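Subject: Interface between my chains keeps coming out wrong

I've been trying for a while to get a sensible model of this assembly. When I model each chain on its own everything looks fine, but I need the whole thing in one frame so I can look at the contacts. Pasting all components below, labels as-is. Any help appreciated, I'm running out of ideas.
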Amino acid sequence: MTNDEKILTELKEIFIETLGHDNFELDGNTTANDVDGWDSVTHMMLINEVEKKYDMKFSLMDLMSLERVADLVKAIENRQA
Amino acid sequence: MKFLETLQNSIEVHSDRNAFFINGNHYTYRELGTAITAIRVAIQKEIPLSEKYVGLITNDDLETYAAIIALWFEGKAYVAINPIYPKSRNEEILAQTNSMFVMDSSPSPYFEKGFKVITTHTLDMVDNNDLSAPKKVEPNDIAYVIFTSGSTGIPKGAPVSFKNLNGFANAIDNNLSFSLSETDRCLQMFELTFDMSVVSYLAPLLKGACVYTVPKDSIKYFQIIKLLSEHQLTLLIMVPSIIHFLRPYFKEIRSESVRYSCFAGGKLYSDIGKEWNACIPNAQIINYYGPTETTIYCGGYLFDKEGNNKEENGVVSIGKPFDNTTYLVIDENNNEVEDGQTGELCIAGEQLFPGYIQNEERNKLVFFEKQHNGKSLRFYKSGDMCYRDQDGDYMYVGRADFQVKIRGFRVELGEIEYHVKKKLPGLDITVIDLDDGNGNTELGLAVCSKEIDLKPTLSYLKENLPPYMIPTRFLFVDKLPHSVNDKIDMKKLRTLF
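Reply #2:
Try treating it as a single job with all components included. I did that and got this:
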């Protein structure tokens, strides 16, 4: 499993836990539009959970450019590096 | 109609300037004018004069904005239809306005049947800087209709006339030292189904300024900051919930370009207002106030960045009415109360809408005539509880009914309950507004029963209501708490979630 895949799997768990359902696919191209319940409110919750899980703090600059899940994976990797 | 002529003139005079920035592309006033002309030709060809209300699918593109202006120049009203909302609700809306025609720029039409669709993005565009003059409109002709939540389960249509909108366009220039010019860069963050969108595009276009729209499929508050930092926006019109979301990141925001930061559509708290003002140090914050029924907003308060602001329970004053508007605070018998006494705020004046569509019952409840300073005025009961202080500034205290604001959207808890009850007949249920801990409101559903699977109920709600009206927190109780006079004790119930 590549690091990308590992993070994707972990993200899916966070999404299921936060959104309360698993009725979605999560890959690099997924956007908020594709996932039921991923809106402006839950987005903040998702970010908080991701920050907790990876023990990191995103900057506003990181968060501004998140459009697809791939951007989130990249932001996590950048912070890990 | 003066504002339509000003708009025509502005589009012609500013032809080389940018009118819009949408999804990464700039569009000049010349391009806007060309699109308006093409759409007007289509309207003249396809839509009979007698058709006054035309549906408009609210996409985020030039054609959609051009269609609004084309409809106005043809003397017609637009009825905004958001394609992400349930189709059944959208059809209900167009049934209320008796609309047969729909303007649509979607790649494939949103309505497959039931309506005559005018496709706006495939029309022949002939580059031309001369717009033909707007048709003459009657002051009471309608410019747009906004549908808001209705406690009977059916959305209420609030039409706004050309006279109302003209009054508004004058009033924003004449009050609270707000003044735009052609060099301004202005945020448009609202769905077109929400009337704060109207000021967000109309105010800039009247002055030759540029409108920056927030992409639809995005997390709005981050996109706003992105537009702000990449394009040095100068005017931000927002609902207060946006800055609640951004608050954890305030220390990373510093934008010298913002001249005005306007709020409406929710309570602005003075502490967060002051913190936000530090992020935009050159900006004047204006706390505007007004229901959709009195045309976007009809009064406001100039915020002091040092924090010396009038407030009630931490909520910044809503200031004074515009010079074309009269406020009156009344008791249960429609009698004016004294300064300092809380009562229901009632509003009269040029911006007062003519009354809900096909809803005489409601109209009887919300309007009344009253002598005021020797004149008989028609007042609208806003449902907002307020008082006036000795300087004539108004303070917002709370709602008189079960209407709440979710991210700026007006929601009647009764409308959600109506739909929940359809799916859970025989069960005692209540929908309640809850604080999410960040100063924003979310919806809770309390059900009197042992724990049951709410998934079918929620998917039913999603088919019938917009996303912001779907409860996100749930509670199962044996009995709903009641107060002494047998009403549900909402305060107590809130503590149980």
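Reply #3:
Confirming on my end. The interface with chain A takes residues 217-223, 225-226, 229, 245, 249, 252-253, 407, 436, 438, 440, 442, 462, 467, 472 of chain B (CB under 8 Å).
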